[in-house]
Amino acid sequence: FPALLALLWLASILLVNPIGEFPLNDDWAFARGVYNLVEKQQLILGDWPAITLVAQLFWGALFCKIFGLSLTVLRISTLVSSFLGVIAFYGIARQITKNKEVAALAGLVLFFNPLYFSLSFTFMNNVHFLCACLLSFWYFSKNIERPNLRFWILGTVLGIVTTLIRQSGLVIPFVFMLLGWI
Length: 182
Fold this sequence. Notes:
This protein has 182 residues and is mainly alpha-helical. It contains 9 helices and no strands. The N and C termini lie far apart (34 Å).
């Protein structure tokens, strides 16, 4: 079923066509930080996006270092985050329901949610934040089900990454720490 999700994800990308050197929504403000990181080797957080944004800027810079500095590449980096988020959501749903079909449907519902789908084709931070949240949840929930230091470390690191996209992500590691005490 993850292969089916990947196939539908690729088909939707071909249908929408994210290629183009133009900003969408406010992603120009987020892209500026990546440009500063790639061109000037400086982490400069602008005044416009009043969020942490650091992890997203490094994610975008990684893609731009490999594929070239462009808004298209930044949108593709978001599409990769989008797919990772859908796979994490599939994993969480599969873990909860123990049913591949229900989990695949959950992944499709997330990806084709109008807000998630449209923001997947921008460099806005919503999809990156949700992706990191879902990955963190997935590893923490795996750790709750089967205690394993590797799952706990991955959940914690991804919780920190979430915080480095939006400050509100700070709550994720604390919630799972509290669950561990119960």
